[in-house]
Amino acid sequence: MGTGRLYKNRFATVYQGKCILTESGWYTPLEFLAKDPEIDITTWTHSIRSGGLTLQTLIENDILKLHTSDCSCIICHEEDPFPENNDECFMCVDGGKLFCCDSCPKSFHKDCHIPSVSPESAEWNCTFCIIRKNKEKEDPENSHCWQEFEVLKQRMYPVQQLKCEYLLMRMYCCSESFLFIKDPCRYKVYSQRVREPMWLDQVKERLSDETYNTVEGFVLDMRLIFYNCKKFNKDNQFGHLGAKLEAKFERDFKEVFDIKEADEVDQPIFP
Ligand SMILES: [Zn+2]
Ligand SMILES: [Zn+2]
Ligand SMILES: [Zn+2]
Entry's InterPro entries (predicted)? Predict the structure, then answer.
């Protein structure tokens, strides 16, 4: 009998749901068992084990949900509900050794993802998916809007850290970002004219070293990149690239941290 990883969320029935990931790809329980001609298919829930327990035990304990034959969910109905992961990195569009998100088709190099992927056997979700899932869990009725100065003061707890990592990943994904990734001081004239250089790889390093105590530290470094760009390039084409990326950053920042400016917040009306 072969080995693989069982993904609970992809499990449906014996012939629906490619829920077992092996060295050679995804398999339904039936396809997985078919690799061994000796196995009796009728007792499939007893033949496959996960974490030392048979599927039968997992199903009886509600850890796995066996779908009914008339189930109308996406796994039971769609030919390929979970397309295979991309074979190029979502961030740098290059190939090589990639880590695949278990919730979306995106793949990443270990260090292109923020934070860098720590290789482990458990299910792994990319930062985009974690943010999306957190948003889905939020109750729109109870959502709170902040003013920018309140957000900047927030301490860098895991929630804030995650949002900053997400913002930074979105920056790297922009076509304008190529100019701002590496240390600009490799151009001599730059270091002569810009007093405090800043670049995306530097922000990424500081973020992963937990250098920032507050959200403000991160935002100030990001804004420094754009400030330097304006100062150095003025109105040339690179200046325009910087301005475009800056506008995107400010928009994303407000969206991700639920910021509303004072005049957008409903003012209480007193009689
Ligand atoms: Zn189903
Ligand atoms: Zn990459
Ligand atoms: Zn993902």
Answer: Bromodomain, Bromodomain-like_sf, SAND-like_dom_sf, SAND_dom, Sp110/Sp140/Sp140L-like, Zinc_finger_PHD-type_CS, Znf_FYVE_PHD, Znf_PHD
| % residues pLDDT > 90 (the chain) | 55
Ligand approaching nearest to the C-alpha of 66: 1
Q: Six-digit token pair at 103?
A: 């919730």
Q: Give all domains of the chain, ordered by start, each with its CATH number.
A: 5-77 (3.10.390), 99-135 (3.30.40.10), 148-256 (1.20.920.10)
Ligand showing the shortest atom-to-Cα distance for residue 114: 2
What's the 193 CA to ligand 1 centre distance in angstroms? Answer: 62
Give the H/E segment covering residue 21: strand 20-22
The angle formed by the CA atoms of residues 221, 224 and 226, to the nearest 5 degrees, is: 125
CA of 109 to the centre of ligand 2 (A): 4
* Confidence category of residue 268, pLDDT binned at 50, 70, 90: low
